[in-house]
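## retry 2 of 3
previous attempt timed out at serialization; input unchanged, resubmitting
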Amino acid sequence: MDTPVDSMNAWSYRKEKMKALIQYHDFDIVGTQEGFLHQLRDLCDMPGYTYFGAGRDDGLSAGEHSAIVYKKDKFQILESGNFWLSETPDKPGKGWDATCCNRICSWTKFKEVDTQLEFYFFNVHFDHRGVVARQESGKLMKQKIKEISQKTSVICTGDFNSTPDTEQIKTLSSTLKDAYMASKMPPYGPVGTFNTRFSNPITPNRIDYIFVCSDFEVLKYAVLTDNDNQWYPSDHLPVVADLVLKETNYNH
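## retry succeeded, writing output
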């Protein structure tokens, strides 16, 4: 997010730290939330990265994106699209009891260049106010993932504004594995994924997730606390998983 209200935490002061974090950890694919077009362009100043996504207000460039930043030499996009978390997912609009904003999910079908393996990547941001909106968004995501991916492997990332005990997370967990739970190595870092406006304390609640289908092995999972003297690049902590895709088809 980029807003003057954040003062010294505004994007102009954070963007180089964000780029440095991504490059140091050498992330292959990053699901982003709340990014405006100029922020995504800033991230794609990093050598070797580009993005797919659309503005939630018009399906083009207006408003915040739930964009997918990825290494363009490592992955090729075969298909892509967007849908909105509402009763009319094919066009911009608010859903159910959401009162603040449109909410969008962007997705890609990737082919990994070296292995030729294919998988879908969904990235989303659930509403932060509407209880019904979050519940219905969980059902919609499950439906759309099945409809779009068919029997191809799936990763789904996002800020779900939901703790693990909620209906919507249970809905998604009925089809996909929560990387936190599936990790072969014990999860590293704090459980909570949100900090208090770019600083400590880190809240105890896990509201950001990586979900994967059964085709993926989750080698390790982490919530990173990289900071500069308790000054963080974002108000959410990076949630990271190392994944291996087996050469099998996803069975819903």
